[in-house]
UniProtKB/TrEMBL annotation:
Transmembrane segments: none annotated. Residues 4-58 form the HTH lacI-type domain. It comes from the Bacteria. InterPro entries: HTH_LacI (IPR000843), LacI/GalR-like_sensor (IPR046335), Lambda_DNA-bd_dom_sf (IPR010982), Peripla_BP_I (IPR028082). One of its GO terms (molecular function) is DNA binding. This is LacI family DNA-binding transcriptional regulator. Keywords: DNA-binding, Transcription, Transcription regulation. Pfam families: LacI, Peripla_BP_3.
Amino acid sequence: MRETTLRDVAELAGVSPRTVSNVVNGYAKVTDATREKVERAIAQLGYRPNVLARNLANGRSGQIVVVVPYLDTPYFAELLQAIIPAAREAGYNVLVDQTDGDPAHESSLVGRGARGLLFDGMIFSPLGLSQDDLSVRDPALPLVVLGERTSDGTFDHVGIDDVAASTEAVGHLIEIGRRRIAAIGDQPYPTGEAAQLRTRGFRAAHAAAGLPVDESLIIGTARFNRIDGATAMAALLDRADPPDAVFCYSDLVASGAIHTLLAHGLRVPEDVAIIGYDDIEDGRYGRPTISTISPDKGAIARIAVERLVLRMGSSTPVPGVELRAAHRLIPRQSTIGF
């Protein structure tokens, strides 16, 4: 069956194709009577305007791109599930790109002239680029950055207060009586900002409680995956003086740590209490369920889309702002028992 065209609508309404175009695009110089005739013809024929063609004619694609390091990480998958409907509600389709944390690929996405007509703006969670790297991006690219970065004044940054959240997580372990607390996930290199902020929170909680920090209990990892947590926990158990609690920098790390503890015949939380970060769905259904820091992913998605739409719709530069979403501590079985 042939698709209904703008010319078909014009013939049925008894007007020119240009008049139909004016109605479809919302131009004011059309009489109410003519507009009504055209709208009736559109409804009768079931005409659907070619939005992509219209956007391209106006130098826009009607699409935004969301760039994340990994699609197999539950946190990013859950965040995308919140971003996509928010973008659709704002009238935009969503493209998704996975960078694997490759600095060259991330640089190519935010470099000069990379946008073309593929997308109108970007929501970006960088992993391979440092804060300094972001400063040399294409200034014409409407950009909202997620994660643990600070706006340089030319883009918006949306995230939670990682230091405060991490302080609360470790404070919870201290409140339940744990004193020899380890941390799994430190990344002391330029692109490890997220981990570094969580380590700051780890230290702050100890300082607030008047407890010393055993530096040897801060364990670095390459990523925030299950294998990282499992391997680091095994190393901690090999010590003569293993910890009685662990702050894990993601729920996946916590899951790996718990796997190792159970494999060694230890009980969680009786022998070792575990708290994670991100509040992924898997953490709510394992045994034990995982205590965690829960970022408001819905708010992060909504704020990011709203700010990007504002940037894309402005004819003048929009100053970059720091925007915080809420977070909350959720105690579960891995710290408070069954």
